[in-house]
Amino acid sequence: SGIYYDFLLTNKQIGFTIDDFDEYNKVRGFVYADPLDKMAGMKIKNLKDLETYLINVIEDRDDFKDKRQEMIKLFYEKIDDKSSKRIIDFLKL
Question: Computed from CA positions of residues 49, 50, 56, 59, in that sequence, does the dihedral angle turn out positive or negative?
């Protein structure tokens, strides 16, 4: 989902529900050959996984900090407070 890329910039823990992963892949497919490798968060397949994810968030256990940073660098060229200026410059306003 596109919201992943936006939420990734908050650098908060992310949980992915992948119980329908195979079905989705058959019907729609993915942009990346190995989409699970691009998911910087816990993969949730069932209620037990969801419980584990929620406990990890509550207890501030974060095994995906480094992976999130890796994905942020992969998906975003510039991460700063100058995006609006770049748009204005690009549009020559």
Answer: negative
Instruction: Report residue 39 as tokens.
Output: 């998911």
Q: How far apart are CA 73 and CA 60, in angstroms?
A: 23
pTM reported for the whole predicted model: 0.79
Say how far apart CA 8 and CA 72 lie, in whole Å: 7
Integer Cα distance of 24 and 37 in angstroms: 16
Neighbours of 16 (CB within 10 A): 19
**Per-residue pLDDT tens over the stretch 59-90:** 999 999 999 999 999 999 988 889 999 999 99
* CA distance linking residue 93 with residue 7, whole number of Å: 29
- Which phi and psi (to 5°) does residue 15 adopt? -115, 135
Which amino acid does the sequence have at 6? D
Give the C-alpha separation, 47 to 37, whole Å: 22
Chain centre to alpha carbon of residue 35:
11
